[in-house]
Write a structure and sequence with these properties.
About 5% of the residues have low confidence. The chain is an alpha+beta fold and about 200 residues long. Helix 7 packs across helix 8. It has eight helices and eight strands; from the N terminus they run H-H-E-E-H-E-H-E-H-E-E-H-E-H-E-H.
Length: about 200
Amino acid sequence: MRLAIQKARDSNMPLDNIQRALDKASGGGEGSSMVEMVLGGHAPGGAAVIVQVLTDNRNRTVQEIRNIFSRAGGSLGESSSVAWMFESKGVINIKTDGMNSDDLELQAIDAGADDVKVEKGTVEIYTAPDKLEAVRRALEAMKIPIESAQLSMLSKTTVPLEEKAAIQTLKLMDKLEDLDEVQSVTANVDFSDEVIEKFQSGVQV
């Protein structure tokens, strides 16, 4: 619950909205209590997709997600059909903003991180699920600003996709992420920079 609150704050969610979500989760607000779900399906081209959900209406949310998969040319199935391709990890994102990436990497490892991925302008830190909060606190104690921290399902291996299928998969993921109940979406695809640029520019496929 602490991580969910922090994620909401990271996204600048209004305090009233956070409180309503907490009331629902604890059964103290109107409506049903919140339910966590992990749904799995396949995108066009066969990529596996994992969708993490927090909802107060399981049937409605599953139907909405099923419709998005269907309209995109994919299919929603049992989460167990693709879950074995993914593993739960804590993911912490930091914008370097002039900080030394090598120093950040060493500090993250000292704080208990399992792995660190350094890219231009950002550092991604990976932890065991039960160590996410401890690593986050340790980094904050070092005065390192955290952009986001959350539990995510990461693919163990990736599959190659042709450009058209890769862009269709990104469009599917984007539609899923637009749903308020969806917490995260992951596909077992290593999207190239070229594909991401074409998706962001709105290239039709």
